[in-house]
Structures are given as C-alpha cells and as structure tokens.
Specification:
By secondary structure, the chain is α/β, with parallel strands linked by helices. The protein is built from 16 helices and 11 strands. The strands form 3 sheets. It has a 7-stranded parallel beta sheet with strand order 1-4-5-8-9-10-11.
Length: 356
Amino acid sequence: MSELKNDLLLRALMRQPVSRTPAWMMRQAGRYLPEYRATRAEAGDFMSLCRNADLACEVTLQPLRRYAFDAAILFSDILTVPDAMGLGLYFSAGEGPRFERRIERAADVEKLPVPDVEDTLGYVTNAVRTIRGALEGSVPLIGFAGSPWTVATYMVEGGSSKNYENIKGLLYSDPKAADALIAKLATVTTNYLNAQIRAGAQAVMVFDTWGSVLEPEAYRRFSLSGMQAIVDGLIRHHDGRDVPVVLFTKGAGTRLNIMSETGCDALGVDWTTDLAEAREITGDRVALQGNMDPSLLYASDDAIRAGVKRVLDSYGDGPGHVFNLGHGIHPEIDPSKVGVMVDTVREYSPRFHSPG
C-alpha cells in the first residue's frame, strides 16, 4: 500500500470514522482561478491543456496550493470518451463543446468503435500518473468520467442542448439503438475508469448531469443501467486499498434510493435535496457527498459560513459525509470565498465526529 498522509476522503466514502468531514469541490481546478486561466492560455486551448500531462498536473494542483482541500480531482473532461470514439470533439468560443460528427441513427451506433483506452486516452492516464507523483501522498486523487446517458446526450445532440429533442427522439423512436449506445458507452467508460485506477486514481466518480430530464422508467433504462454496468465492472481494490465509487445524478431527488442499490459506495447530492432527507431515502447504505448551492459563494463571508453549517447540520452525526458543492463552482466566484467555505468545514465539522 502506498503511503497516504491524509486519507479522510477515502475513509469517509467508505463510511468509516473520521476526525472531521473531508471537503473538496467539483470543478475546483478551473476558471475561477486566475492561475488556471494563465495556464490555459499557455496551453493554447482546452484540449491541448488536457493532453499535456505536465500542464494538466499543474492545474490539478493549483487549488491545493490555495486551500486545504482533502482531495485532488483529475483535470480532464467527460467528452474525452466520445472524442476517443472518433466523433471529433472541439470547442467553439461562446458555444461550448461540439462534435464534428454526431450520432443520428442505429447505423451510426453500430459503426462506433470500442477504442483501446490505453492508446486513445493514454494522455489521461499519463496525467494521472504525473499528478500522483506530484501529490507525494498528500491527499488522494479522484478520477472521473461522464455517465453513459450524459455522454450519449452530447453525442446525439452534437453538443449542449436545452430540450434534448434529438436524444429523446432516438430513445423513444428506436429504444434498441439507444440501449446499444448506452451499452457501448458503459463498456468504454468502465475500461477508461479502470485505466485511471491502474494509473493511480484512488477513488472514481461518475457524473450524470442529465439523468433528471428523463421520466422514471426511462431513467432506469437509459441512465441508471449504464451506471450500474460501470459499478459492476470497476476495479474496487487496488494498491492495497479499496477504491470508492461515487455516482452523481444532478437533480436525483427520490431517485437516490435506487441509485444507492447499485453497489456504489457514495452518492453525490445536489442542493435541491436536504442531506437529512437523502440519508433517510438511502437508509444509510451509502456515503453522501455535497451539497451547498454554488451560488452561495456569491454571498457575504457570514452567509457562506452559515450555509456550510446548514449542510453539516443537515447530515448530522456520524461518518459517511464528504462536504462539496451541489454542482461545479461558477467561473465568476471570488477565489477568497472558497477559502471561507473550506475553513468553516474544517472548524465546524469535528463536532459531528467522535474524537480519536
């Protein structure tokens, strides 16, 4: 087992006792930091930054130099997977991610390759190895991927969408084609996350950004099924440690119950669900991560402190909580506000944990 000086995150995700609640933040390496913007400018564009292991390592470490976070998260993007499958990912100014080719029909799904992730996504595993070396065991490294449903949505829409007309059109007009797309993405994503684990990721998270746009039965079939397949296929023990798996569906609400039955170790919870309610819904079967509204970081320092305390009070006593935002930090946030949040978690959370 490699030495880890701070393993609070890993213990909390496995619902083991901790001395205080660990904290990290979705999109903690990102545009709210001026040093990130400078490094991205040096790289030239977003994908060049992702593909340069040294620069990806640099932006992963930048927030840890500012704040006492209990984890680093790999700097990458959920759309590296469809890019590796040949769809031609690019980023347009003001429009976000786009694809040169999109999936429109069953024949397109059949033609999609299942790539060798060690080859096509080797730049990601190189970044993982580089980051693990640079961390020197200070905190654990989280790897991640997008859920098959969320990635499929981008692939069929050709980019971001407001109404999801293309992907919903596919799943309702040709559900077998949608099933095939989700299954193929689940295979590639499982291979991808396992490659990250073998390279040194010590926990992994699956981001399901768009699962909440589906009706209940469609959610089970097209969103949850893909995440279930990933959970079933992941390496769960590596380098002498358990590798916790976190699932996150934004806006999951009462669906947290069926998510907790997948065999995952933890669930991310957004700010629309109270953590006490989430704990009851899931029957304490899994750890919970979250869930302060990112917009609260626009507020005064006192309001941020109060918001942090509400989240911690809501979860209450005992292990199994990782403090986080309910979604990614907004780019316009003043970086000093993040320090207020993290410091408050460290100062206030020990009361919820048994000493020693």
